[in-house]
Amino acid sequence: MESARRLVERIIDNGDSRAGRAFDLTIQALIVGSLLAFPIETMPQISEELRRWLRYFEVFTVAVFTVEYLLRIWVAPNRLRFIFSFFGVIDLLAILPFYLALGVDARSLRAFRLFRLIRTFKFVRYNQAVRRFWRAITLAREEIVLFLGVAMLMLYFSAIGIYYFEHEAQPEAFANVFDSLWWAVVTLTTVGYGDIYPITVGGRIFTFFVLVTGLGIVSIPTGLLASALSKARELEEKESPADREEP
Amino acid sequence: MESARRLVERIIDNGDSRAGRAFDLTIQALIVGSLLAFPIETMPQISEELRRWLRYFEVFTVAVFTVEYLLRIWVAPNRLRFIFSFFGVIDLLAILPFYLALGVDARSLRAFRLFRLIRTFKFVRYNQAVRRFWRAITLAREEIVLFLGVAMLMLYFSAIGIYYFEHEAQPEAFANVFDSLWWAVVTLTTVGYGDIYPITVGGRIFTFFVLVTGLGIVSIPTGLLASALSKARELEEKESPADREEP
Amino acid sequence: MESARRLVERIIDNGDSRAGRAFDLTIQALIVGSLLAFPIETMPQISEELRRWLRYFEVFTVAVFTVEYLLRIWVAPNRLRFIFSFFGVIDLLAILPFYLALGVDARSLRAFRLFRLIRTFKFVRYNQAVRRFWRAITLAREEIVLFLGVAMLMLYFSAIGIYYFEHEAQPEAFANVFDSLWWAVVTLTTVGYGDIYPITVGGRIFTFFVLVTGLGIVSIPTGLLASALSKARELEEKESPADREEP
Amino acid sequence: MESARRLVERIIDNGDSRAGRAFDLTIQALIVGSLLAFPIETMPQISEELRRWLRYFEVFTVAVFTVEYLLRIWVAPNRLRFIFSFFGVIDLLAILPFYLALGVDARSLRAFRLFRLIRTFKFVRYNQAVRRFWRAITLAREEIVLFLGVAMLMLYFSAIGIYYFEHEAQPEAFANVFDSLWWAVVTLTTVGYGDIYPITVGGRIFTFFVLVTGLGIVSIPTGLLASALSKARELEEKESPADREEP
Which of B47, C10, C91, D43 is 20 to 30 Å from D215 by CA-CA measure? Predict the structure, then answer.
């Protein structure tokens, strides 16, 4: 019994062994398949047969994830701790909606399907990029939060200002400050859909000043994230210098 | 009396003590609340009751800010100097519109409401990000101004050029150079609303060259600000190295 | 015979000699000419005579490229190895469509013309920028792939989310998750054509959060490429320090 | 006579002396005034009187620039060399159109007015930012040219590709490869006016791949310019370290 537990542990917790790598790849393939199946289900024109096969795939995926979850509980040194850990909760949430949906009325099934997306967080465990990304965010957390705050202030001022310039000329488009906030978001990120834009001379001059001062502010958190990311990589390389070969 | 003054001073000027931190957080919460109340007031569909409660909140906020302002004058080592300092003026401007609006005709009240936004500058005092941001701007002031100048020249040339290419084909959209300037701003910041764009072959080729040369120029002040910001952080860390823990 | 081969080798493989440089420039000019002829052929309004001249130019270009290909095989130390090398295959693919098109029905000729574009890859051989660019991509390959993965996940989540917010309000524009994916691509790259955008309050707030978190993520691969490029330049300078003069 | 020449030389060539600085500022103010007068003239609704005053200002400006030009020839150590130098030619071109317009038919006057813009290049002499900018471009000239080449190739491929995907579905919008090129420019710079965009599934997937690979390429010349600029500043600081005070 104990040796079986050891064997399972080596497979699901150790990505370096051959069996462990195969196990990781299988789980990842199932997550990706699950992610790809989701958009296809939203298409109204797919045939009944394809819909049935997607349903079979869904049942199979949940079955594998359930076995994986139970095995992880079994091999955990401290079972309660695993169940309430971040990955334990994610693993449970990834399968729970399926079982809950079995016991309830079919009509409310659609809302539950959305929870299936939580499954993608399982991906985090297997993905080095996500891990490094997370580390970068942790490194620059304080700063990114502070400058996101400044960016929010900038958005707020822009929204109030454009409201005073454009509300009278375009009472529909700039009906209230929330519409102006939408304008501010779309403009300062330079997306510029074209659904809402200033037409008065005052509003255009204001937009000019908002863009001149705002573009710099809005792009700062992005810059902070980029430099935090290179710091995270440096730290990673220091910890495991053998991992990276020089090309 | 003197000890009371000391006590007040310790609370409103010293964010490190427990009472001081609580005081700071209260003032900040009131500023944020005041900022959030403003957009809600612009919505025409809100009920009379909600409008009344927003008004009560406004009176309460101004009352607290008035008391804060008077206390700051009281504890200031040099009272006149505080009154005419940057923060002294901001603190006064944040409450003055409310009192002025009391004595005047209700119709002109709307314009005064705009001045309430000055209150947000009180935020600056409490916000580390704004302070660091200000420092970065001071560090790179000379350069940012110089390159904003180059960017302005670029906008100007683009506007004149597109006017000559598009004025005849689109006499409404490109009616004069000011309309072209609006086009230049929207294009070189890559916002691109789609309300005004070239349709002639010459105008499109010109736009191509403007974008090729202009995107680099327009993004330089942003880059200068970003590098000034990292300099400002380094200076801050040198001054108070104990503030930042290594993760 | 052997001396003739040596001479040819010195010309086509050695860009430093005078004849070699002239040969390189000729081939490059023909590639550029071929590239420029292509768009002109797509214009329906060009005269029959111009079309005939473009055809003559095409025949001439392919003839030169064929001679070049045969000479390269002739002078190669290991002929089979050259034929199956990257540049060998590109050189063959650049001329093959023309000969295949001679033997087939004129109607399917149009599809073959697209393959002519492969010819531009011949350009890679002669272009230092492309070579350095390739090196930069090789240097940062692993990282760029990882963060492109994160960006893909971000696009996926945005598409699923906006589908749930906007599908009911705009059943035409957001008909299925694939339409939402198009919206996510256009929005997160800040292109913002304006053909598809959220109109519900929930969808707009979601867009705000998507932009705040997504802009940073999408721009990371670009940043990685830029820093890899400066690394590639440093390596190049170390290898041939005499090539670059200090201004 | 010689001492008068020395005096004039000190004023117009030496921006460090008091009189020299005043002279520089006057010329710069006239250039700025001349630039501002230009867009106002394009407005059809301005009064005849304002138009007359703008004309008087124009005559005055040209008179001052003419005197400046003659004085510069007078004090130049080598007069012919000055006349054919970059700034000599610019100074002449800035006044020449005015004199040529005097002798010709009033109808062709409008075209000459465009040449007045050359006057802005006089600005270059007085503007430190423009000088540093120029230096940065000189430093990174070779690289910027190379990567602009790669960006051009990218635009070209995108245009050809989208033409094949969208030509049949939108024969008007994507009529030929030149329209596709316009689409490629507007999309890869992320301007996205919304006047032309793909609607087929193939075209949208192609756009996705173009954006994923192209955004990085298009932004590289900008990044190169930014880093060249910081190099130029370092060189400047080395040459005149006393100019910059530490804040």
Answer: C91
Q: Is C168 an interface residue toward A (CB < 8 Å)?
A: no
Round to whole Å and give the CA distance between D139 and C102: 50
Answer whether B146 sits within 8 Å of D128, measured CB to CB.
yes
Taking residue A240's Cβ as centre, other Cβ atoms within 10 Å add up to 8
Is D186's Cβ below 8 Å from some Cβ in B?
A: yes
**How many angstroms separate the CA atoms of B165 and A200, rounded?**
24
Choose the closest CB to B190 out of C190, C193, C194: C190
**B97 neighbors B112 (Cβ within 8 angstroms):** yes
Tell me, yes or no, if A153 comes closer than 8 A to chain C by beta carbon.
Answer: no
Distance from CA of C164 to the nearest CA of B (A): 26
Residue D214 makes CB contacts below 8 A (sequence gap 6+) with D154, D158, D188
CA distance A127 to chain B (A): 22
Distance CA D34, CA C174 (A): 52
- Which overall architecture, per CATH, does domain B2-126 show? Up-down Bundle (1.20)
User: Do A139-243 and A2-126 have the same topology in CATH?
Assistant: no
Judged by CB atoms closer than 8 Å, whether chains meet at C147 and A129 is answered as yes
The CA angle B123-B127-B132, to the nearest 5 degrees, is: 125
Report the gap between the CA of C196 and the closest CA in chain B (Å).
Answer: 13
CB B116 within 8 A of CB B14: no
DSSP 3-state percent helix, strand, coil across chain B (nearest 5): 80, 0, 20
What are the backbone angles phi and psi of residue C244, rounded to the nearest 5°?
Answer: -105, 125
Q: Is the pLDDT of residue C37 over 60?
A: yes
- Identify how many contiguous H helices and E strands chain B contains and give both numbers: 11, 0
ipTM of predicted complex: 0.76
C-chain CB neighbours of B194 within 8 Å are 193-194
The answer to whether the CB of A136 falls within 8 A of the CB of A231 is yes
C234 CB neighbours in chain D (<8 A) are: none
Chain D CB within 8 Å of residue A222 CB: no
Which of D208, C156, C183, C165 has its CA nearest to residue A38?
C156
Task: Classify residue D20 by its DSSP letter.
Answer: H
- Would you call B221 and A216 a contact, using CB atoms and an 8 Å cutoff? yes
Which one, of D153, D148, C222, C193, lies nearest residue B212 by Cα?
Answer: D148
Rounded Cα–Cα distance for residues C159 and C180 (Å): 5
**CA-closest candidate to residue B167, choices D41, A193, A206:** D41
For C205, counting Cβ atoms within 10 Å of its Cβ (0-12 exposed, 13-18 middle, 19+ buried), the class is middle
d(CA B108, CA B101): 8
Q: Where are the alpha helices (DSSP H) in chain D?
A: 2-13, 18-41, 48-75, 79-83, 86-102, 109-115, 122-126, 128-139, 141-166, 177-188, 201-239
Q: C218 and C187 in contact (C-beta within 8 Å)?
A: no
pLDDT: is A247 or B25 the higher one?
Answer: B25
Domain boundaries, chain B: 2-126, 139-243
Could you tell me the pTM of the whole model?
Answer: 0.80
Mutation to test the C interface, candidates D134, D141, D164, most C Cβ within 10 Å? D164
Kind and range of the H or E element at A183?
A: helix A177-188
pLDDT at D237: 75
pLDDT in tens, B178-230: 899 999 999 999 999 999 999 999 999 999 999 988 887 777 777 777 777 77
Quick one: fold of A139-243?
Answer: Helix Hairpins (1.10.287)
